[in-house]
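Holo prediction. Input below; ligand is zinc ion.
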Amino acid sequence: MIKNPVPWPNGARCAVTFTWDMDADSMLHLTHPNDADTRISTNSMLKYGPLIAVERIVDMLDELGIKNTFFVPGWCAERYPQAVKMILKGGHEVAHHGYLHEYPNMMTRDQELYWTKRGIDSLATITGKRPRGYRAPWYRFSKHSLEILLGEGFTYDCSLMGDDNPHLIRCSKGDLIELPGSIQLDDWPQYVHNPDVDYMMSIMPPRHAKEVYMAEFEAKWQYNGFWVNCFHPFVSGQLARLMAVKEMILEMKAKGGVWFATGEQVAAHTRKLIDAGTYQPRVDDLPYYTGRIPEFPASYMPAG
Ligand SMILES: [Zn+2]
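Structure of the complex:
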């Protein structure tokens, strides 16, 4: 069913990249700048990520022998350097996720460039290495993001959802490997219920969430695809949920033929095949649109 699958290393059936967005309380300060300090319970819920869950996740990954990618806003790295040190000590990838979890597609190009550089500087100072991968905060990749990422030496993006396979996103300045995700592999719809972050979902039992995630895995395994999730330490790092994550990884390992890799590794592998001429990726030209489409008259206003 997947046309043009990427040939995975050692004949693996599929590639699996576990990613964690360590947002901590950045988004609360961003969305409620004047009174985030008074929302102490939500602050505590979000701080659970770097203060409690990250160590537990890293320990679990060490036990299972796989490396993951952690997307970390620069402000969170500055605020919670011990969590970042634990991630690095475990041999995992630290990638870029904005500075204060800002909204890239609501900024000018210069504003986005400023915050992207500030995020890079924070991560480079704390990790000793410039980040190579990027996921836009809130998935809000902008019309300028690709050009900015190319200018700052990134090798891949992990914000879009337009394919089952790694592919290329391209603009006039060049192209970048896209590692496409899907909203069904994000843990917010399964678990997050909190009015301060404007997200009120019916909380699902971990076995239900696991079923959603594993259905995607089974399909990607069968058709040689790429599985990448978007979990959050404060969400899926809680005990019962992390037990389900561990079960998932064990089941994937037991099935066999799975290449567990970081985002950086999958991007490097795909780029190498492209450069060697052994894989021709699909190319997505960005931006999709530069403004309002002309088919609707200027007088047209959406209902509501
Ligand atoms: Zn995030």
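The first helix runs from residue 26 to 31. That is the main takeaway for now.
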